[in-house]
Specification:
The chain has about 260 residues and is α/β, with parallel strands linked by helices. It folds into 2 domains: about 130 residues, 3-Layer(aba) Sandwich (Rossmann fold); about 80 residues, no CATH class. It has 10 helices and 10 strands. Helix 3 runs parallel beside helix 6.
Length: about 260
């Protein structure tokens, strides 16, 4: 069953067509990779899915519900969450404070409640702090819970972003280059986290350039080039696809 369905979506910036009539489906409970050379339109496509960019034409469906051009905050309420290519971390806050930001839409904090139900606010904070700690523990970050993010490495902060995205219990998690700039050990750790997230029932749409990681953890891959869909299939099919190899290397073999 498809959780996400993209039907003929397009996006232009002035005279440049960044995404041109792209269609694909993401099956529920899978890791679906979106790959392609730099400038292929991958991040633009994810920005359209996540409500950051308006779609010029075409439609997007989530659980058979049309979500075309729905604002980002409404998509979060539907349990669609994403991370970004560049870190979006508040470095003057602790890891815990950053993760708790992910619970913002759940926390009981209206002005009326803040005025008359102070105990309820404290209960919420205690509840979500406990949940945040459990998320941090599962990725080995509990020791950094109360450390300022400015004092932590780039690799650790990449994990913090993923943990924060898990706060709303997403049904669909969009990851934009989660291992960019990481070493091989850090990459392996993030790959394992993504696999565990998927095994727990979260559907993942993943943009990444690390082909070894993509081939090892993806259930299905969609390839983009110059804004159009070049190919789609399982990793074995994609790694031997002549058009994909040409787009990446100009020929030869695409190594996993």
């Amino acid at each position: 069953m498809s959780l996400l369905k993209v039907e003929g979506i397009s996006k232009s910036f002035g005279g440049l067509k960044a995404v041109d009539n792209i269609s694909f489906e993401v099956k529920e409970g899978t890791i679906h990779a979106l790959i392609g050379p730099n400038g292929a339109g991958k991040t633009t496509l994810v920005n359209m899915i996540s409500g950051i960019y308006k779609i010029d034409s075409g439609d997007i469906y989530f659980k058979n519900e049309k979500i075309t051009n729905i604002p980002t905050h409404q998509l979060v309420n539907k349990h669609i969450m994403r991370t970004f290519q560049n870190l979006e971390i508040c470095e003057n806050m602790t890891v815990m404070e950053n993760v708790l930001l992910g619970f913002n839409i759940k926390m009981n904090k209206s002005l009326l409640k803040c005025s008359f139900q102070f105990e309820s606010i404290l209960d919420d904070e205690e509840k979500y702090t406990h949940i945040a700690l459990s998320h941090l523990k599962r990725v080995g970050l509990e020791e950094y819970a109360y450390t300022l993010c400015s004092q932590l490495s780039y690799g650790i902060l990449k994990k913090v972003e993923i943990v924060r995205a898990l706060a709303i219990n997403p049904k669909l998690l969009l990851l934009d280059e989660p291992v960019a700039g990481l070493n091989s050990t850090e990459t392996s750790e993030i790959a394992q986290i993504i696999k565990e997230i998927s095994q727990e029932g979260v559907t993942v749409l993943l943009i990444e350039h690390d082909m070894k990681m993509i081939m090892n953890i993806s259930d299905e891959i969609t390839v983009m080039n110059f804004g159009v869909k070049l190919a789609q299939g399982i990793p074995k099919e994609i790694s031997s696809n002549k058009d994909v190899i040409k787009a990446y290397l100009g020929g030869g073999t695409l190594h996993a």
